[in-house]
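Field: sequence (string)
Field: structure_tokens (string)

Example rows 1 and 2, in order.
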Amino acid sequence: MITRWQWLLRQFLQKLWVVALLYTCLGIGTALLAPAIGPFLPEGLGRKLGSDAVEKVLTVLATSMLSVVTFSLGIMVSAFAAAAGSVTPRTTSLLKTDKTTQRVLSTFLGSFLFSLIGIIALSAGIYSDNDRFVLFVVTILVVAVIVFALLRWIAHLTVFGLMNDSLSKVETAANNALQDRLASPFLGGHPLHEPIPSDAEPVSHPDIGYLCHIDMAELQRIAEEHGLLVYLNVLPGSFVHSAMAVLYIQRDGTTKDAGFEKLQLCDALSVSITRDFGQDPRFGLAVLTEIAERALSPAVNDPGTAIDILGRVVRLLAPWGQKVEPLLKFPRIWVPPLEVEDAFEDIFPPIARGGAGIFAVQIRLQKSLLALSEICPECFVHPALINSQQAMERCRDKMLPSELRRLETVAKEIAALSTSNSLSLQT
């Protein structure tokens, strides 16, 4: 589990201007170091190797890169608008942090700033031929990076912001969050399966919004310092407000209640106005479902996208059945589990409702539930049976008799797996 400062640093490094700032530092460093490196080069080397061309090259870079940056930003904004309109607005946060887009645009912007600094340095008239040659060599390296970035940008533009690209980004974000949670299902703390002790004191968070990150290491440090046992009442993705308890604490009698530790505990919980994909696997699943719902709306009428998403959901949820022995890193913290039933509730009922009258969607939904039930009966078959029955109720009066018979055949297979799994548990 990453700490709050590591999480904030990750958010900071996703900003577009970070790489551009590095190019600016490269330009300033080159301008300052060129006069120091030039005297160590052989006399006349700069004049022989075309150091006079550096100013022309930098001028071309400055003018062309400014145009490229402006054009690329226009393309990026258009892609954001297209994704928000055809996919869902929730995908724009992933498009903004797309590594290829950020690196390419940062390279273009940074090379413009580098060339601008180089032109200013040359205009000062303090460089010898060898000094200009040092700047020329660095400029050639920057040009090589720009050429590579342009080729990469052209290839990336063929898919950037399209439906499949957006779906892949959401699936990857959901998979990363889910894999992290499955590897550490209780975030390194104790599993909280029993009710929270009645004598535990509630602690509310002063902010209103979505819980985005829990700094478990900081909670453990505060608990050790103040002699506390901490019981989390929420998970990342939960909506919190000042009238609800985000956690409960028990005191072991080693410290007095000063109230200060409650403020410290709240500082370890990061709350934002929007949900974040990082520690919240259900958000990625909910965004995929939102895309499927929009695709099934009468205005769009794209059941193929919903069918595609059901396949992605099976791929995402399948590892949930793997048995993992959780490591206890924070012995003073108890964490509630992420329930399979909640994940199913995020996905299947909205798709079943939106595609109630579309046989292709309903049969894929039933087969997806059957696939999960077969992959891990003890984990998936109970929520799969519930969602299968609910989906049948939604579409029963909207299907032809032949279609209903095919749906009922798959639903009966899920029910049979549920029965056999219950018998095996009893024995």
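Row 2 begins here:
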Amino acid sequence: MIETNLENLDAKRERAIRKLSSVYNLPSLPFIILEVNKIIDDPRTSASQLGKMISQDQGLVTKILTVANSPLYGIPKRVSTIDFAIVILGFNQIKNIVIALSMMETLKRIGDEKFNHKKYWQHSVITASAAKRIADDLGYQFSGEAFTAGLLHDLGIPIIYKYFNKEYKEIIAKVASNKSSYLDVELDLLGLTHQEIGMYLLERWNLPLSLSEAVAFHHNPSDAEHFPELTAIIHLADYMTQKLEIGTYFWDDNIQLDKNIITILRLGDEEYLENFIDSYKELFQYQIETLDFQ
């Protein structure tokens, strides 16, 4: 753990938050999310009306169908049209997928060729799909939120790349030289972590507390006060990408498992957890092989 003067840390944190607050071109809530929310909130809306509206963005349609047919997402039937996806998944699942995918597309536009968006995207999709599958397997009621939170869990990283690029490069160099964790070095250089930056954005977008808390504590779910189960699921899915070495992302190197998730998710003991993780390996492998969009 890097030792940092507390007063100095607070000053860095204030500067970082002030900078984020003053950036006018931070990603804003995509228009399609507002439209989808509005049409879903109308009880008179039919599946065909929702499908017609989403179909205006064919790129989004392709991504939704790819997600719906992914091995980890767990739908037994082949989903070939957006209307069928809406019927099979339901309005709320579609809403969660649209929110997550639209956010990711927005984040993609803030990067450049030096930011490996493909690896970031693959890790995010696998974490999201695994979180949704784990939530289903454990009987967690809101598995659609698990997908959304999983896809957005690392959204603070491209924000650091874009708006704190000098510190981004310093973070990578410092981790490489002294083998510290990315979280510790982020805290040392910025005064806050990618988790907190992600939470800041989700709050700015007025998205549910469940999502912002899961993002804010996905490395330390024991600290989640309101939605510990959702946060623990995201943590487990994220950890599994490293443990199984499938869909990994370098920012998670040396990720530490918060063993309190065994109690939070009622997983018995460490041996049961190990077997639980291993049981997903084939699905993870199949998922990475079928993930054909960026």
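free_text_note (row 2): Residues 117-137 form the longest helix (21 residues).
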